[in-house]
Amino acid sequence: MSKVKNAYKEIENVVGSDFITDKDFMKAAYSRNVDPAFPDRWADMIVRPESTEEVSEIVKIANKYKIHMVPRGGGADLVGGSVSEGGILIDLTRMNNILEINEKDFYCVVETGITWGNLISQLHDKRLTTGVLGPGSGFSATIGGGLSNSTAGFGSTKYGLVPDICLGVEVVLPNPQGTIIRTGAAANKYAKPFCRYGVAPDFTGLFMGDVGSMGIKTKAFLKLYPETPFKAQRYYMLHRKDYNKVYELMNKLRKEVRDGLHDVLVVPLIVVQLLASMIESKPTKRPRLKGPVFSIMVEAVDERILNVYLEKVNEIMKEEARLFEWQEIDTEARLSKDWKFELKYAYNYFNKYISIVPPKISCTTCHKIPISDLPKMAQLSAEFENKHRNELPLGSISLFATVIFLLPNGNCVIVGGFNADNVDEQREKSMELWHKKLRHQVKYGGVHYWLGEAISQSIVEADAYTPDFIKFFKDMKKAVDPNFLLSPKKFHMYSYDHDISTHIVKEKE
Ligand SMILES: Cc1cc2nc3c(=O)[nH]c(=O)nc-3n(C[C@H](O)[C@H](O)[C@H](O)COP(=O)(O)OP(=O)(O)OC[C@H]3O[C@@H](n4cnc5c(N)ncnc54)[C@H](O)[C@@H]3O)c2cc1C
User: Does ligand 1 have an atom closer than 6 angstroms to the CB of 348?
Assistant: First the structure.
């Protein structure tokens, strides 16, 4: 029997025959993540464990037969992270229980296969929140995916990235022993998992944003906050299209409104125009669209404080912008004055900006930049676009930013990318340009977040790492995964001896 067949039999004994498959229709169903930028990838088998112990047994068997593994949550990845060519695809969505909601100490313990939609709605019933509510794909995306992709999303302006709310994790290391460890306060077997630092070095960080390459997260310990009762949303349209002004206003809002800001998003003018042209229920008369739209959500524990925040916001914005309602271009849009928290909003606000022409595949290039560099990086991006215009797939739309949003400190996120038709002829061309664009962003100092395969490889290809860093990274990888079996394509980490510098791309000037 082949090693794959042997491994299959042994894993079947662990999880039961209902939760493992090598049937073609199932392999096909799992052959992509949300966007089909990559060609189909068929795993040798798909496994759906129910417990940490089962994950550990699977890992032992994979090591015995030297078969690679890829963990998968909701499969809402956009950069090839949650698919596997051959090997074992480990779907964690059966591990979807909330194990504890501790209302006195403000933390919760969940299995990592639970979706944001599920967790957030159960917390909402108790008037609790995780602050950052996960990615735009959160109805189906999981906590494990959010931690692994160092996800930014709704609430990130105030609460940061998903790893920022993480107090520790339970992880199965991909080594021959299938070692199970807990990090954060939970590394102290006598302690509650209520804080992240102070028991050992911050080993939680080793598994944050690792895109499933350092371990398989099975449980997460997350911060909780009481829900803030008063919220309001305001939109402002800038009088002109100017990235300098966007930076200045974001900076001022951060300085002067601070914790009152729940989310600050900026929709660039071109996207407002595109959205306006696609809307079905247009008003008969529409104002001229002149500049980007700021969407500002403030929150406070008291209505009086909320009003102070709103006044402050207005003071900052009024010289450069006018109050705006989406109803001016879309009669079905809701008025911001009526704004109230609803779960649908958290996960829908973002979707339209990911691929603004939905039937197309999106080659996303979302990344973070220091906010004061926004005008410069918009300029560099425009230069790249001009230079490579002819390489874009036919009919493609390429945008530096479909939405920009503010993070804590001086960061902001640029959501952008280009799209292509979902046909083989365009796929190879897109892949090449995608990596080129990602390398360009890495070289101007952009820092990405969901890295998956396309972005993690592009960072290596851009020659971002020093030789000492590469050695350190490999040594850490070897310590947890001596056979380099977990997600080997990410970061081009195929084996300890593989020289990843051979992947560096020398750009033609
Ligand atoms: C419409 C849309 C909107 C989106 N909006 C956002 C957004 O606002 N912000 C954002 O950051 N992303 C966004 N994304 C991208 C993606 O959905 C998120 O990054 C999400 O967090 C991925 O979660 P998932 O459960 O689907 O993970 P998957 O796609 O299943 O996996 C993502 C990565 O994590 C690894 N992984 C998953 N679970 C585990 C685990 N338990 N242990 C170890 N590794 C694991 C996988 O190997 C893979 O590399 C969006 C995608 C879409 C389609």
Answer: no
Closest atom, ligand 1, to C-alpha of 134: 21
| Calpha distance 38→430 (Å, rounded) | 10
Convert the pLDDT of each residue in 468-482 to its tens digit.
Answer: 999 999 999 999 999
Q: Is the CB of 72 under 6 A from ligand 1?
A: yes
pLDDT tens for each residue of 31-84: 988 877 888 899 999 999 999 999 999 999 999 999 999 999 999 999 999 999
The pTM of this model reads 0.96
Q: Which 3-state string (H, E, C) describes 114-141?
A: CEHHHHHHHHHHCCEECCCCCCCCCCCC
Which residue has 């000037």 as its token pair?
509
DSSP code, position 486: B
Beta strands in 33-179 (DSSP E): 45-47, 69-72, 88-91, 98-102, 107-111, 128-129, 166-172
Name the residue among 102, 46, 96, 51 with its Cα closest to residue 69.
46
Please tell me if the CB atom of residue 87 comes closer than 6 angstroms to any atom of ligand 1. no
Report pLDDT digits (tens) over 331-355: 988 888 766 667 777 677 666 676 6
Closest approach atom of ligand 1 to CA 453? 49
